[in-house]
Amino acid sequence: MAETIRILLVEDLPTDAELVEREVRGGLPGSQILWVDNPRDYLAALNTFQPDAILSDYSLPGFDGMNALLLAMERMPETPFILVTGAMNEETAVACMKAGAWDYILKDHLQRLVPAILNSLERGRQRRARKEAEEALAASEGEYRRLSHEFQSLLDALPDSLTLMDKDLKVHWANSAALKLFGKRKEGLIGHRCFSLHSQGAEPCQDCPVTASFASGEPASLVTPTADGRIWDLRSIPLRDDHGEISRVIELGRDITEHRKLEAQLRQAQKMESVGRLAGGIAHDFNNMLTIMIGYGEQVMSQLKEENQARSDIAEMVKAARRSAELTRQLLAFSRQQAVLPQVIDLNKRINSGLKMLKRLVGEDIDLHFIPAVKLDMIYIDPGQIEQILANLTVNARDAIVGTGLIRIETGNIVLDESYCTFHEGFVPGDYVVVTFSDTGSGMDQDTQQKIFEPFFTTKEEGKGTGLGLATVYGIVKQNNGFINVYSEPGEGTTFKIYFPRHRGSAGGRKEVRMEQVSGGSETLLLVEDEGQILAMCKRLLEKQGYRVLAAGSPEEALTLSRQFAGEIHLLVSDLIMPHMNGRELYEQIHGCRPGIRLLIMSGYTADIIAKRGGLVEGDHFIQKPFTNTDFIGKVAQVLAQGQNGEGLPSGNEEGRHDG
């Protein structure tokens, strides 16, 4: 079915209109023709008739063809407009064509009208098709630009450096990370050879992955350090053209410096965990055996005269046992499994009280100065761990000083903000108490500083150190949510800075009982220990001090003795972890019937085992196996003299950190 062509005819003479209509219908049968002869009907027809073509006379009363053309161009610029006139000079014809007329036909040549209409309609279709194509192309280009911008933004958002290079290693494209890496603007990078930008050299870098990909046709990689100390992982991916030839290579560069640091930290943590598991696995049995060796050794020594050679021999045995106990204690400390009883302390007072001992460690050739801060904040830590830290750092400093020298200990309050912690890995913003420990020793290079906190690492001669001193310091600091930094240069001495979280509150602590004042007593003690040899040794030692001892090898036996004994029992001395019932649970049962009884817990287990199975609580008195006879007797006297509430942990502190 032929398409109906709608034609609007503008003509003031009916006879001419009839001639034009006859000509059109003859050549275009089925056409729909609307004839108008005034401006009002013409405008209405433009809006309602929507013609496919407009045929207009040029000379109209009060309304000419040029006006009709301009109105059509305003409302329907894509509709063909053909002038059909009796006479038109060339100048007018040119003006009309320039104004937008598609053609003009003289009335005495109407045989040209139908071909002119068909030609104009075809030109109109072509023009519309071209416009649609142009619009589609413009839309496509806009979409391409949008997608290109989004893709470029995506690549620029990547933290990895991306560059596109040719066989001559010239950069053809780069993302923002690459521009930042090279420190260049795009114009300073594109078109330049990558190696001239990296190292200002004239030759490609050794083992260049881009060169390797061009040579092999396969992806390549290289891990390399840069002059600024960073470590980069470089990977190249070849791109092929339509002929299968490698035309470009993409190089991806990733800064893996922090990743390598984290890997090193993980290896260190795994190493510490492994040694910690080993230490924890043997600690209980090892500590029990050492307790027996030290206890019986000291008892035998007390029965022998000074000049007896056997006394000297046994003294050496006890000394070796004590060194073994210290080694175990250090292993547990650096692996953070040491059982601790933290309390709120004044660090200045603790350091002051230990200066005499520290000065004995360094000898007369080394000066030891302590510079305490005014109004130092409190910290929450086991006082014994502070002694361990100071002793290990002092011995380390002493061994680093040749001849005379100086060790300086300073304290202070400090606030670590976000900006500081950003550049100090592992640090957390907050209020801290800092201990600065400096010496004028030989100092350390960077390689040594990277290893000093590793267990068993030492720069000392064989037999001069265990390599656990600084590892112990590190473990204690971490166990107490602190941080440690070291600053050193070869020949310039070393400074350690240790940060402990500030504790809000007043100093607690335990009233010290001087061991030389301990003289035993006559109280009744209930001693509970499932290790037979330790039970016998402790019973013998306590009875020698004048105490009455009820000895039990199990919690069940202890409950029976408590029920059967008619007199007062002043103190329960119990192993913490035993079959069926731990020492604290035993105390709770006995305390229900004997509310005045006090408690001293002893254990050779590590902190994690104690936390899971034993559970010390605030106010408990605790002694870690192995212990010397003097320490044990002193602890018993201390508990009896001060009472459970007088000497135990301060109440309401820090979520039970007592159990390590």
Helix proportion: 40-55%
| pLDDT < 50 stretches | 509-518, 644-660
- Count of strand segments: 22
Largest sheet: 5 strands, parallel
Largest sheet strand order: 2-1-3-4-5
The domain tally reads 5
Distance between the termini: 96 Å
CATH-assigned fold name of the largest domain: Heat Shock Protein 90
Tally of helical segments: 22
Mean pLDDT: 82
For CATH, the homologous superfamily of the largest domain is named as Histidine kinase-like ATPase, C-terminal domain
CATH class of the largest domain: Alpha Beta
Q: How does the helix and strand content classify structurally?
A: alpha/beta
Shape: elongated
The portion of residues forming beta strands comes to 15-25%
CATH architecture of the largest domain: 2-Layer Sandwich
What's the gyration radius in Å? 49 Å
Write a structural description.
This protein has 5 domains: 6-129, Rossmann fold, CATH 3.40.50.2300; 158-255, Beta-Lactamase, CATH 3.30.450.20; 261-334, Helix Hairpins (Orthogonal Bundle); 347-501, Histidine kinase-like ATPase, C-terminal domain (Heat Shock Protein 90), CATH 3.30.565.10; 519-659, 3-Layer(aba) Sandwich (Rossmann fold). It is built from 22 helices and 22 strands. Helix 18 (555-564) runs parallel beside helix 19.
